[in-house]
Write a structure and sequence with these properties.
Number of strands: 16
CATH superfamily of the domain at 1-113 and 331-403: P-loop containing nucleotide triphosphate hydrolases
Number of helices: 8
Strand order of the largest sheet: 8-12-13-3-14-15-16
Strand content: 15-25%
CATH architecture of the domain at 1-113 and 331-403: 3-Layer(aba) Sandwich
CATH topology of the domain at 1-113 and 331-403: Rossmann fold
Length: 403
């Protein structure tokens, strides 16, 4: 899979911009603040309906404009598809596929598959569990777009259940039995949807663990002349807040990947913590409380890994996503946003070897010298919103046209 065309109107800093992209290496050069990351952010947004930089849509619309328009043309398996998306903060997104409107924007999920590594991905290692949960869920949706509705339905049920719990301190005094009956309905829905999401996450962690371990070893492992050090081996494990309610003798060593054990565990946990939930007015069990545990040797990566190790772990996780998606269909588009500036020469060289054969790689860098040898290709130079097109030959820029 590769993108051939990106068009933006009133997206971020761009009143209007058009880029003709190419298979192979595409390098977008520009000093900080010039708008290069805005371009790859738009590509990722059309793949996931989310930004890797902000949690809301308002910052995506250019100041003074009401709506941002994004268009991306992708070629896969000999077929070209045009995706269009209108973002208007506070309103539902509107989408079209090959210029035909679709009922919901989520219909475009899975058409453009994009894996983006960006500096913000350090939060996967150093940040809160919600960063790692989002990482898993975004990958699940790219792999299995139908899970987007499961994710949305779970969030809706969780919100409704929390609202009911917050009201129980007053409602139970006048109609306690009715509140309990209403909660029971939400309990069943929460358990069913939560179990589906939990089981899917665990299967996903199992699928990406070895690719992530291998990628980390390739990027950061010892050279052939250095001894191996098991204290730097990466490992991944899904940690559920309801593990102890599972009726399984091998837990927590082998978490089940079936839905039913998690549904039963969630219902048991809800029953056990009913009084506490009512007192606190919030749901205390479910996949919204889970985490992806990352370890180097026997130590948790968070708080233990150095900055360089954390950067390499985050990069390894994204490369594992790339390998997983590539193994189940067309190669996804690989975006590396300012990745090389934080890597030493050895890690740069190893990363080049890992990505140079991808069908399409889109790289951003502040200067051409940050792009390692071996990644020659098409280049775009961004200066205050103007995009100059040319060629990149190992750090040497040639003049091109202006789009």
């Amino acid at each position: 899979m590769h993108a051939t065309l990106l068009e933006l109107t009133d997206f971020r800093s761009y009143p209007s911009v058009t880029l003709s992209l190419h298979p192979g290496i595409n390098v977008i050069l520009g000093r900080n603040g010039q708008g290069k990351t805005n371009l790859v952010e738009a590509i990722g947004y059309l793949a996931t309906l989310g930004s890797h930089r902000v949690a809301t849509d308002a910052p995506l619309v250019r100041s003074g404009a009401a709506t941002a328009l994004l268009r991306l043309q992708v070629d896969a398996a000999g077929r070209s598809t045009l995706l269009e998306l209108a973002i208007e903060p506070g309103k539902a997104k509107r989408a079209r596929i090959n210029r035909s409107p679709v009922p919901r924007a989520a219909a475009i999920l899975g058409i453009a598959r994009v894996v983006t590594f960006a500096p913000e991905d350090l939060a996967l290692v150093k940040g809160d569990p919600n960063e790692r949960r989002r990482f898993l869920d975004d990958l699940l949706v790219q792999q299995r777009p139908l899970l987007a509705s499961t994710r949305a339905d779970y969030d809706r049920v969780l919100k409704q259940r929390n609202a009911l719990l917050r009201s129980t301190s007053v409602a139970r005094r006048s109609a306690g039995a009715e509140v309990d009956r209403t909660l029971a309905v939400w309990d069943e829905q929460l358990a069913e949807l939560g179990a589906t999401l939990t089981a899917a996450r665990i299967r996903l962690v199992q699928d990406i663990e070895q690719p992530a371990v291998d990628a980390y070893a390739q990027i950061s492992g010892p050279s052939v002349t250095e001894p191996a050090d098991s204290s730097t081996n990466l490992s991944l494990r899904y940690v559920s807040a309801v593990e102890r309610w599972l009726d399984r003798p091998d837990v927590p060593i082998n978490l089940p990947t079936e839905v039913e054990p998690w549904r039963a565990a969630l219902l048991s946990a809800i029953a056990d913590r009913r009084r506490e939930e009512m007192d606190r007015g919030v749901t205390l069990v479910g996949p919204q409380r889970d985490d992806l545990e990352l370890r180097l040797g026997d130590q948790p990566a968070k708080g233990y890994a150095s900055h360089g190790e954390s950067w390499s772990i985050a990069l390894a996780l994204r490369l594992a996503c790339y390998r997983l998606l590539a193994a189940t269909g067309e190669d996804p588009i690989l975006v590396l946003d300012d990745v090389f500036a934080e890597l030493d020469a050895r890690r740069r060289s190893r990363l080049v070897q890992m990505v140079r054969e991808a069908e399409q790689v889109i790289i951003t860098a502040a200067v051409a010298e940050d792009v390692p040898a071996g990644l020659d290709g098409h280049r775009f130079e961004v200066t205050t919103g103007r995009v100059t097109v040319g060629q990149l030959t190992t750090g040497v820029l040639t003049e091109g046209s202006v789009q």
